[in-house]
Amino acid sequence: MSDEDSLFRKMIDREIPADIVHEDDRVIAIRDINPQAPTHVLVVPKTRYRNVAELAEADSDLLTELFRVATRLAERDGVAESGYRLLFNTNADAGQTIFHVHLHLLGGEPLGALTGGPMHG
Question: Where is the HIT domain (predicted)?
Answer without folding.
Answer: 7-116
